[in-house]
Structures are given as structure tokens and as C-alpha cells.
Design goal:
The protein is mainly beta. The chain has a single domain, classed as Elongation Factor Tu (Ef-tu), domain 3 (Beta Barrel), CATH 2.40.30. Helix content is 10%, strand content 43%. It has 1 helix and 9 strands, in the order E-E-E-E-E-E-H-E-E-E. The strands form 2 sheets. The protein has a 7-stranded antiparallel beta sheet with strand order 2-1-7-8-9-6-3, covered by helices on one side. It has a two-stranded antiparallel ribbon with strand order 4-5. A hairpin with a 2-residue loop joins strand 1 and strand 2. The two termini are 26 Å apart. 18% of the residues are buried.
Length: 143
């Protein structure tokens, strides 16, 4: 028998560099979690034989979507600027569901750079902050 499940984005917590990000998220998205590198690569020889190679990559990317009006933009920009001046912008980052369905933790994440695009207009826009690091632990249901 089919059942109805509930997902509440307010029950997904994000913490970057020791600061919980509690508000100011974009209208449609809060955070995206990506593993840009596959677990395996494959090569096929001219004879059709296939060899797979394990990448052993733990590279993980969080993209945080904040409205331009969010005070957390200033916090992330401060971390980014400190990293530029003294190479001290590495810290713990995690995304977790409060119901225990998933969590992803990076012991040493860092900000890739400032938002690549900043648009000023009549309505508030979204800043995308990209944090990259090695995945330390993961409980799945997350992508």
C-alpha cells in the first residue's frame, strides 16, 4: 500500500566553518551536494575489453544558495578573505537531515571563491557559494 512521506527543508541543517547557516536561503534551493568525480573510470580497448580503475576520490562539493540579503554572505566572505590573506580558510562543513535520513561531513572544506556572478536588479537575487573538500563521512539518502 502506498504511503505519504513528508520532507521539510527546515529540518535540513547546514554548518560551514563552525557557523550554523540558519536563514536567508534562496526561494527554491538551500544547498546542493555533489560528488564531481565518479568512484570508477572505464576504458575500452579496440578489442572491446574494458578495464575499470578506482578513483579513490573523496572530493565533495556543497553549493549553498543564499539570498543577497542574507547576513551569512558577509560571514562567508570574511572566511574567504582571511583564507586569501593567511591561508586559514579551511574548516569543518556539514549538511544533515535532522530526522537522520542523511548527512555529509567534510573535516576540511574551503570556499572555492566569491560568488561567480552578482546581479543587481529590482528583486533580490541569489548568491551561490561553493565549498569544496574531502568527504569524511556520509549517511545516505542524499544524492
Amino acid at each position: 500500500m502506498p504511503s505519504t512521506r513528508t520532507f521539510d527543508p527546515n529540518r535540513v541543517t547546514v554548518s560551514l566553518f563552525g557557523a550554523p547557516i540558519g536563514s536567508g536561503f534562496a526561494e527554491d534551493s538551500k544547498v546542493k551536494i555533489e560528488r564531481p568525480t565518479a568512484d570508477w573510470t572505464f576504458k575500452e580497448g579496440v578489442d572491446g575489453e574494458i578495464t575499470r580503475s578506482k578513483t579513490n576520490s573523496k572530493l565533495t562539493k556543497f553549493t549553498l544558495y543564499l539570498m543577497q540579503s542574507s547576513p551569512y554572505n558577509a560571514i562567508l566572505d570574511k572566511v574567504r578573505k582571511e583564507d586569501q590573506s593567511n591561508n586559514d580558510g579551511i574548516g569543518p562543513c556539514f549538511v544533515a537531515s535532522l530526522d537522520g535520513a542523511f548527512d555529509v561531513f567534510m573535516a576540511a572544506g574551503s570556499i572555492e571563491g566569491p560568488p561567480k556572478e552578482v546581479e543587481i536588479g529590482r528583486e533580490v537575487k541569489v548568491n551561490e557559494w561553493v565549498i569544496i573538500g574531502a568527504e569524511t563521512s556520509r549517511t545516505d539518502a542524499a544524492p
